[in-house]
Design a protein that fits this description.
The complex is a heterotrimer of chains A (about 300), B (about 150) and C (about 775). Chain B is of the alpha+beta class and about 150 residues long. Chain B has five helices and five strands, in the order ββαβββαααα. Chain B folds into two domains: about 80 residues, Ubiquitin-like (UB roll) (Roll); about 70 residues, DNA polymerase, domain 1 (Orthogonal Bundle). Chain C is of the alpha+beta class. Chain C has three domains: about 160 residues, 2-Layer Sandwich (Aldehyde Oxidoreductase, domain 4); about 180 residues, Aldehyde oxidase/xanthine dehydrogenase, a/b hammerhead (Aldehyde Oxidoreductase, domain 3); about 325 residues, Aldehyde oxidase/xanthine dehydrogenase, molybdopterin binding domain (Aldehyde Oxidoreductase, domain 4, 2-Layer Sandwich), CATH 3.30.365. Chain C has 17 helices and 31 strands. The chains are: A alpha+beta (about 300), B alpha+beta (about 150), C alpha+beta (about 775). Chains B and C meet through α2, α3, α4 and α5 of B and α1 and α15 of C. The complex binds FE2/S2 (inorganic) cluster (2 copies). The site of one FE2/S2 (inorganic) cluster has 12 residues of chain B, from loops.
C-alpha cells in the first residue's frame, strides 16, 4: 500500500457478457487492459493502491455454471468459480466429504469477505499465502478453464508458475474446480498461524491430508503442503516419502516435520522473519501431522 | 467511463440509479442515497464499518460495485428498525453498553443480525468469529459480544 | 464490580448507570459524523501531495500542469502561507515551505470537482527535492553530529514551560533533580538497570480524519471536522492565518474514535488553506486509511533507560531515568509528553532520590501526537517491569513490594509536592485479590505455560496550568434542560455524564436533559480540549456551576415571588418545593415567562440560563533545573491492572485469559461508563502489547494498512474482564470525580510483560510481544528447541 493509494477506484468500464465465449473474446480483444472480475476482494484493493489499472473489468460471475455446486458420490465435488466461500462452507456435501476444504476456507479473512471471496479466486491470485490452495492441491483439485481453444483442465498442483503467476492465458476463464471423491478414511487438517487468532493472513499455513493405504509399508499415505514459506504454495514430497517407508511414530512425524522445515524457503517480511517461519513450519507441521495420524489411527 | 442504469431494493424501497462503473456500493449508499449510517473506515475490506446485507448476506460494501447490485436487495443499518421499534440486537447492544463512539456500530449490527438469521443460537465462539471482520477500537468487544448473546436469548 | 463504601450521600442520578444519551442514534445509523454531512453538488474534493522522503529540501514545485487540468479549482503550496502553527511550540507550516521532514509531509494541496480529478492533479504536480540525511533514531538525534532538523529552533514561539535547546534536535529537555541519586547507589541491596524500546503505534480510530472547510467572501472560515479540539483548532488555525478567532468557526459532530489523534491541529488546517482559494465552496479532505497511517499523529516511540535500587527491606531508594522521545518531524504535543513523563518519572512510588532527563527529540519520523495515556503507557511499560525485577531480586513478592512503595495520601511526590487522598493501595490489593495472586492454576494444555502479572500506574491530566472549561444550561418552556458544552463525546460518554451532573445539580430527572450538539464554537461554550481525561472533572465542574447558577436564579425568583427565604426552597424532580410553606411549583411554570410579582402587579424573572466555568487556579511552575515545585498538576488518577495468560510453547503466542482493572476514579458518576472505559482501555493496551507497531524503515512505514497493522479483534479478547471501581474523592472534582479514560491502558503492557515473565521467564526490550518475538526469545534462552 502506498501513501498515494486512491480514495476511490480508478476509472474503468464494467462489462457484463452473457456467454463464456463473449467474455473470452472480449478479454482477448482487449489483452493487457481487461481482467475477469469475480468477487473483487483482491482486484479492488490492488486497483485502489494503483497496482492494477485495467480499462475493463469483465464480470464473469453470472455466466453459465459459475454458480453451481454439486456432488456426486462417484465423480466427486464440483464448485463453480463464482460460488462464494460461505456457500462452500455451508454445503452439506463439503461438510461430509471435504472437511479439509471447509476448514481451510473458514480460515480466510472474515465472514463478510467470504461472501464475496471464492476458492477459485483464491487459487488464481496464486499468492503463496493462499489459505485454500494447500487443500485444493492435496485433494487433487482440477480447474476447468474456458479458453481460446475450448475447455481444458488444469490440475492445481502444476498450475502455478511464480508468485501471482499461473498457467492462465489471455482470454482464459476458470469456470469451476473439481475434486475427486476422497480416498476411503481420508483425514485432513489445516493449521494456520497468523498474528491475530483469526482473520489474519498466514505467517505459516500447514495443510496435511492422509488416508490409509495398504500398499505402502507404513499403511498410510500422508501428504503435506505449506503456505507462506516459499514463493509458491509448496508440497513437500519428502514428507510423503518419510511417512510411507516405515511404520509411523512420533519420531517419524518429527522427521517429516523437519523435512518440511528444510524444504521451505521463507523470506523476512512485515509479517514475520524467515527464521521464525522456518521453526514454525517444523512445529506446526509436526502438530498437523500428529492430528491427522491420530485421526487415521482411530479408524 | 460508462454509466449503468440499475434497479435495486434498499431497506424495502425500490430504487433506480445511474452509476459509473467504478462506483462502489458504499459510495452509492452514502452519496447518492444519503444513507450515511454505513461507514467508510478503510475502503479495502478490512474494518467492516461498511458492512451491509446484500441478498441477505453481509458484504463489505467498499468491495462491491454499485453496478453489481442491479436486482439486488440491500439492507443497511437504517433498515434494521421497523416502525420505530429497534431490532432486538440494536436494543441488546445498547443495554449491554456495547456502543461507544458508534462508528463501528452499524457494521457490527449488520454482521450480528446476519449471524442471528443464519444461526439463532450462536455460541460465544460463533459470535466472535462472525464479528472478526468488524474492528472496534473503543469497546474492547466484550460488551458487544454480550449484547449479541443477549439478543440470541430473547 | 466492587464499589468502595463512601459516606457522602449523592443526589440522583449521580452514581447511576444511565443509558448513554447517544446510544439510540448510534444504533440506528442516524448519528451524524463529519463525513456524513451532505454538502450537495457544490462540494469540492481535496487531495494532498505529500513528501516521499523523510528529509529533503524542496528545490522547486511546479503546479502549472495541475492548475490547467479541467475541473481543478485550486492548487495550494506553502508559498502563500508563511505562518507557523503548533500547540506548545510553533514549529511547522501548514504546507511545507523549505523542507520536508517526514514521509507524508504535505507539500501541495488540490481542490477539484471530484476526488478523481484531484488525484490526477496531484500526479501533475512536479516537485524537485534535494534529499538530505535523515535522523531516524532519537538517541542518535541528540548527538552534536546529527543533522539539524530545525536550524531556526530558537526563533520558534514556545510556551514558557517548554525548554528547547537551539542548535540541537532537542525540542524540550525536562529535568528532575530530587535528592542525590549518586550518594545512595552504594546503599542499595539490589539494583536494576534496563533499557527499553517502545515502538511507534497509532491510535487507529475506525473513523479516519476528515475535515470540510468553507471560507466566505468576507474571509470567515467554517470548519466541520472530526475533532477533539474545536476550540484549540479555532485558536491555532486563526493565529497561523493571522485572522481573528471570531472569524474562525469550528463545528464538530460525533467523533468516530479519537484517543488523542483528533486533538490539536493535524490535517484540518490543510483543508482550511485549500478552501481559502475557492471562496464560498465547501472543500472536503478525507484521509484514506493509508494516509491516516502515514500522516496522522502517532504515539511517538521511546527509548528509555531506567536504573533503580532498593534496600534490603524493599524500600525504593533511588531512580535514575533517561527518556529519549522519538517525537518526529514536529512536536504538536511531544514536548509536553516529554514534560509529563518527566514529572511522573518515579511512577506511582515514593522515591527519595530521583534524577530524570527527558528529551523530546526531532526525528524524520511521523509527528508524535497525544495518545491515550500521554506518554504514561510508554514510560510505565519499562518502569513497572523494573519494579517487578527489583522485588524478585530481593526475594520479595512484587505485590508486597508495590504495597510498601506505592503512593499513599501525603506521600512526597517526585516533584516535591504532596499526594492528595489516594486509593492506590486499595486498587493494588483488590486487583491482586481478583486475579488470585499467589495461586497458580495448571495450564490448559501440556504445551502451554501459565503466568500472572500485575502493574500499577499513575497519570495526571497534562495540560497548561490554565486550561479552562465553561458550560451553560437553559430551560425550555416545558422545564426540560439543554446543556451547552464545548467538550466532545468521542465515545467515552462525556455527554451522558454531563447530563447526569446537570440533572443532579439542578434537580431535574435525567431524562429531561439534552446536550446541545454538535459542538460549535460559534454557540457552544469554551472548552480547552477533549484530552487528558479532564472532561468529567473540569467540564463537569463547569456544568455543575452552570446548573447551580440556573438553580440559584430559579430559587431567588421563586423566593421573591413567594416571599420566602431561598434557603427553604429546593428543586426536586423538576419541581420547586418549599420546605417551609410546602408550596410546590413545576419548573415549566417558571422557566421562560417568570412569575407574577407577589402583589400581582407585573412580573419577575425571565428566561433562565445558567452559566458556569472552571479553571484550576492553583497550578504553579516547576523549577527548570530541578523539576521541583509546589503543585505541578491538578491531580493524579491511579490504579492497577492484573492479568493471567498462557504462552504457547509451540508458537510463542500469548493468550490473555483474564484481566482485572482497578482504578481510583474519585467518584463514578456513571459506573457502567467507567467500566466501559476500563475494558476498552484494557483491550487497547493489550492490543498495543501484543500486536501493534508501526514498522518504520528508513522513515517509511512498512505496514500502512489494516492488513499488516494488526489490532485486537473480537477473537483476541478475554471475556473475563473484571472492573473494580475505587472511590477516594477528589477535593475539587464534581462529587469527588476524576477522570479515567486514558488510565486503563497505562499499566497493561507491563502487566502482560510481567505475566509473560512469570510464565516462561523471559523479558523483552519492548512490545509488541508477538508470538514471533516470544518464541525466538525462548529459543535463544533454550526454553524451547
Ligand atoms: S470500509 Fe469496507 S471494510 Fe473498511
Ligand atoms: S465504538 Fe468506537 S469503534 Fe467501536
Amino acid at each position: 500500500m502506498s501513501i498515494d493509494a486512491h480514495p476511490g477506484l480508478p476509472e474503468f468500464d464494467y462489462i457484463k457478457p452473457t456467454t463464456l465465449k463473449e467474455a473470452s473474446d472480449f478479454l482477448i480483444a482487449h489483452a493487457g487492459e481487461a481482467r475477469p472480475l469475480m468477487g473483487g476482494t483482491d482486484i479492488f484493493v490492488r486497483m485502489r493502491s494503483g497496482g492494477w489499472n485495467d480499462k475493463y473489468l469483465v464480470d464473469v460471475k453470472c455466466l453459465e455454471g459459475m454458480n453451481d455446486i454439486s456432488y456426486d458420490p462417484h465423480k466427486g465435488l464440483s464448485i463453480g468459480a463464482a460460488v462464494n466461500m460461505n456457500r462452500v462452507i455451508a454445503s452439506r456435501e463439503v461438510q461430509d466429504n471435504y472437511a479439509l476444504l471447509l476448514q481451510a476456507a473458514s480460515s480466510v479473512a472474515s465472514y463478510q469477505l467470504r461472501t464475496r471471496a471464492t476458492i477459485v479466486g483464491n487459487i488464481c491470485n496464486a499468492s503463496p499465502a493462499g489459505d485454500t490452495i494447500g487443500a485444493c492441491i492435496l485433494l487433487g483439485g482440477v480447474l476447468h478453464v474456458h479458453g481460446n481453444g475450448g475447455i481444458r483442465q488444469e490440475p492445481i498442483k502444476t498450475f502455478f508458475k511464480g508468485p501471482g503467476e499461473t498457467l492462465l492465458r489471455t482470454g482464459d476463464i476458470v469456470t469451476s474446480i473439481h475434486f475427486p471423491v476422497p480416498e476411503e478414511g481420508a483425514r485432513g487438517v489445516y493449521i494456520k498461524l497468523g498474528r491475530n487468532k483469526a482473520s489474519d493472513l498466514s505467517i505459516v499455513g500447514v495443510t496435511v491430508f492422509g488416508y490409509p493405504d495398504v500398499n505402502v509399508p507404513s499403511g498410510y499415505r500422508i501428504r503435506l503442503a505449506l503456505a507462506s514459506v516459499a514463493p509458491l504454495p509448496l508440497v513437500v514430497d519428502q514428507v510423503e516419502a518419510i511417512l510411507t517407508e516405515t511404520s509411523i511414530d512420533e519420531d517419524r512425524l518429527m522427521l517429516a516435520a523437519e523435512a518440511a522445515m528444510h524444504a521451505c524457503t521463507p523470506i523476512d517480511d512485515v509479517r514475520a522473519s524467515a527464521r521464525y517461519r522456518k521453526v514454525m513450519t517444523r512445529n506446526l507441521s509436526f502438530n498437523a501431522l500428529k492430528v491427522v495420524w491420530k485421526d487415521l489411527k482411530k479408524l | 467511463m460508462a454509466f449503468h442504469r440499475i434497479t435495486f431494493n434498499v431497506n424495502g424501497e425500490l430504487e433506480q440509479a445511474d452509476v459509473p462503473s467504478n462506483m462502489t456500493l458504499l459510495k452509492m449508499l452514502r452519496e447518492n442515497l444519503a444513507l450515511t449510517g454505513t461507514k467508510n473506515g478503510c475502503a479495502e475490506g478490512e474494518c467492516g464499518a461498511c458492512t451491509v446485507l446484500m441478498n441477505g448476506e453481509p458484504v463489505n460494501s467498499c468491495l462491491v460495485l454499485a453496478v453489481e447490485c442491479d436486482g439486488a436487495e440491500i439492507v443497511t443499518v437504517e433498515g434494521l428498525a421497523h416502525d420505530e421499534r429497534l431490532d432486538a440486537v440494536q436494543q441488546t447492544i445498547i443495554d449491554a453498553g456495547g456502543v461507544q463512539c458508534g462508528f463501528c456500530t452499524p457494521g457490527i449490527l449488520i454482521s450480528a443480525r446476519a449471524l442471528l438469521d443464519r444461526n439463532p443460537q450462536p455460541s460465544e465462539e460463533d459470535i466472535r468469529i462472525a464479528l472478526v471482520g468488524n474492528l472496534c477500537r473503543c469497546t474492547g468487544y466484550v460488551r458487544i459480544i454480550q449484547g449479541v448473546q443477549e439478543a440470541a436469548r430473547i | 464490580m466492587v464499589m468502595e463504601e463512601t459516606n457522602t450521600k449523592v443526589p440522583s442520578p449521580i452514581g447511576e448507570n444511565k443509558i448513554r444519551l447517544d446510544a439510540r442514534e448510534k444504533v440506528t445509523g442516524a448519528a451524524l459524523f463529519a463525513d456524513d454531512i451532505q454538502f450537495g453538488s457544490g462540494l469540492l474534493h481535496a487531495r494532498v501531495k505529500r513528501s516521499p522522503h523523510p528529509h529533503a529540501r524542496i528545490i522547486s514545485i511546479d503546479t502549472s500542469k495541475a492548475k490547467a487540468l479541467p475541473g481543478v479549482k485550486a492548487v495550494v503550496t506553502g508559498e502563500d502561507y508563511p505562518g507557523y502553527i503548533g500547540l506548545y511550540l510553533l514549529d511547522r507550516h501548514i504546507f511545507c515551505r523549505d523542507k520536508v521532514r517526514y514521509v507524508g509531509d504535505p507539500v501541495a494541496g488540490v481542490a477539484a470537482k471530484s476526488e478523481q480529478i484531484a488525484e490526477k492533479a496531484l500526479q501533475l504536480i512536479e516537485v524537485e527535492y534535494e534529499v538530505l540525511e535523515p535522523v531516524l533514531d532519537p538517541e542518535a538525534g541528540v548527538s552534536p553530529e546529527a543533522p539539524l532538523l530545525h536550524p531556526n529552533l530558537e526563533e520558534y514561539e514556545v510556551a514558557n514551560f517548554i525548554f528547547p535547546e537551539p542548535g540541537t534536535n532537542i525540542s524540550n529537555h525536562f529535568k528532575i533533580r530530587k535528592g542525590d541519586v549518586e550518594s545512595v547507589w552504594d546503599e542499595c541491596e539490589a539494583l536494576v538497570e534496563r533499557k527499553y524500546h517502545i515502538p511507534h503505534i497509532q491510535h487507529v480510530p475506525i473513523e479516519p480524519h476528515v475535515a470540510i472547510a468553507k471560507v466566505d467572501e468576507t474571509g470567515e472560515v467554517t470548519l466541520w471536522g472530526s475533532s477533539q479540539s474545536p476550540f484549540a483548532q479555532r485558536n491555532l488555525i486563526a493565529k497561523c492565518l493571522g485572522i481573528s478567532q471570531s472569524d474562525m468557526r469550528v463545528i464538530a459532530p460525533y467523533v468516530g474514535g479519537g484517543f488523542g489523534s483528533k486533538a490539536g491541529v493535524s490535517m484540518e488546517a490543510l483543508a482550511v488553506v485549500i478552501a481559502s482559494q475557492v471562496k464560498g465552496r465547501p472543500v472536503k479532505l478525507l484521509l484514506t486509511r493509508e494516509e491516516e497511517f502515514y500522516t496522522a499523529f502517532v504515539r511517538q516511540g521511546l527509548v528509555a533507560y531506567f536504573k533503580m535500587g532498593c534496600d534490603a527491606d524493599g524500600r525504593l531508594l533511588a531512580m535514575e531515568n533517561k527518556f529519549f522521545w522519538d517525537a518526529g518531524a514536529y512536536t504538536e504535543y511531544g514536548v509536553n509528553i516529554t514534560r509529563a513523563s518527566g514529572y511522573s518519572s518515579s511512577g506511582p512510588y515514593e522515591v527519595p532520590n530521583v534524577k530524570t532527563d527527558s528529551y523530546c527529540v526531532y526525528t524524520n519520523h511521523p509527528v508524535g501526537g497525544p495518545m491515550r495515556g500521554f506518554g504514561m503507557p510508554e514510560m510505565h511499560a519499562g518502569l513497572e517491569q523494573c519494579i517487578d525485577e527489583l522485588a524478585r531480586d530481593i526475594d520479595m513478592d512484587p505485590v508486597e513490594f508495590r504495597r510498601i512503595n506505592c503512593l499513599k495520601t501525603g506521600s512526597v511526590l517526585v516533584t516535591g509536592s504532596k499526594m492528595h487522598p489516594i486509593g492506590l493501595t486499595q486498587c493494588l490489593e483488590k486487583a491482586a485479590d481478583a486475579i488470585g495472586w499467589g495461586s497458580k492454576a495448571p495450564p490448559s494444555a501440556p504445551n502451554k505455560k501459565r503466568g500472572k502479572g500485575i502493574a500499577l500506574m499513575w497519570k495526571a491530566p497534562a495540560m497548561p496550568p490554565n486550561a479552562g472549561s465553561s458550560a451553560w444550561v437553559e430551560l425550555a418552556e416545558d422545564g426540560t434542560l439543554t446543556v451547552g458544552v464545548g467538550g466532545q463525546d468521542i465515545g467515552q460518554g462525556a455527554f451522558t455524564v454531563a447530563a447526569q451532573m446537570a440533572a443532579a445539580a439542578l434537580g431535574v430527572p435525567y431524562e429531561w436533559v439534552r446536550i446541545a450538539t454538535p459542538v460549535d464554537t460559534l454557540y457552544s461554550p469554551y472548552e480547552w480540549q477533549t484530552v487528558a481525561s479532564r472532561l468529567t472533572w473540569s467540564m463537569g465542574n463547569a456544568v455543575v456551576n452552570a446548573a447551580k447558577d440556573a438553580r440559584r436564579q430559579i430559587l431567588d425568583l421563586v423566593a421573591e415571588a413567594w416571599e420566602e427565604d431561598p434557603q427553604n426552597l429546593d428543586i426536586v424532580n423538576g419541581i420547586v418545593v418549599s420546605y417551609k410553606s410546602e408550596r410546590e411549583m413545576p419548573l415549566k411554570d417558571i422557566a421562560i415567562y417568570g412569575l407574577p410579582k407577589p402583589d400581582d402587579q407585573g412580573w419577575l424573572g425571565g428566561p433562565v440560563r445558567g452559566r458556569g466555568n472552571f479553571m484550576p487556579s492553583y497550578i504553579t511552575g516547576l523549577d527548570p533545573e530541578t523539576g521541583q515545585g509546589e503543585r505541578a498538576v491538578v491531580h493524579y488518577t491511579t490504579g492497577a491492572q492484573a492479568v493471567e495468560l498462557e504462552v504457547d510453547l509451540d508458537t510463542g503466542r500469548v493468550e490473555i485469559l483474564r484481566g482485572v482493572s482497578a482504578f481510583d476514579v474519585g467518584r463514578a458518576i456513571n459506573p457502567e461508563l467507567v467500566e466501559a472505559q476500563m475494558e476498552g482501555g484494557f483491550v487497547q493496551g493489550m492490543s498495543s502489547a501484543l500486536f501493534e507497531s508501526m514498522q518504520l524503515k528508513d522513515g517509511v512505514m512498512q505496514n500502512p494498512s489494516f492488513v499488516d497493522y494488526r489490532i485486537a479483534t473480537s477473537t483476541d479478547v478475554p471475556l473475563d474482564l473484571e472492573n473494580i471501581i475505587v472511590e477516594v474523592p477528589q477535593d475539587d472534582g464534581p462529587w469527588g470525580a476524576r477522570g479515567v479514560g486514558e488510565h486503563s491502558m497505562v499499566p497493561t503492557i507491563p502487566a502482560i510483560a510481567n505475566a509473560i515473565y512469570d510464565a516462561v521467564g523471559i523479558r523483552m526490550e519492548g512490545p509488541p510481544f508477538t508470538a514471533e518475538k516470544i518464541y525466538l526469545a525462548m529459543l535463544d534462552a533454550g526454553i524451547v528447541k
